[in-house]
TrEMBL record:
Pfam families: rva_4. InterPro entries: Integrase_dom_put. The lineage of its organism: Eukaryota, Fungi, Dikarya, Basidiomycota, Agaricomycotina. PANTHER family: CLR5 DOMAIN-CONTAINING PROTEIN-RELATED (PTHR46791:SF5), EXPRESSED PROTEIN (PTHR46791). This is Integrase core domain-containing protein. Residues 93-124 form the Integrase core domain. It comes from the Eukaryota. It comes from Rickenella mellea.
């Protein structure tokens, strides 16, 4: 909306707050929310909360994230427990001496300002 009006988004937020225009959450009962979450979980069982919130917004519903989390726990309690029990299997390796194996990782969070940080650590 801000782009359409030719404003910065903070300016738009300022004027919305100044004139008392609020974005309200959709009034939706817990039973109706549970039904929608159940429909979503049958089509996308491995998807998480963020995907679910997007699904609800696509259907024109604005619901608090806490309510969506609680609804997911009510609807898919067993699935949540099974997903949390799954462990990541990591490979075991043995390094024969120091400086034989190095690990590299990059941090690109500050790339907007031209800052990229790479870190290296000895895997011995």
């Amino acid at each position: 909306l801000a782009k359409m009006l030719g404003l910065h988004r903070n300016t738009l937020r300022y004027y919305l707050r100044l004139y008392g225009v609020e974005r309200k959450f959709t009034e939706l009962s817990d039973d109706d929310l549970d039904k929608l979450v159940r429909v979503f979980k049958t089509t996308k069982p491995e998807s998480g909360i963020r995907y679910l919130v997007g699904f609800l917004r696509r259907h024109g519903l604005r619901v608090q994230r806490r309510r969506v989390t609680l609804s997911t726990r009510r609807v898919d309690g067993l699935g949540r427990v099974l997903r949390n029990r799954r462990t990541i299997r990591r490979r075991k390796y043995k390094s024969t001496r120091p400086n034989y194996l190095w690990h590299c990782d990059g941090h690109h969070k500050l790339i907007l300002w031209g800052i990229v940080i790479h870190g290296f650590i000895d895997g011995y």
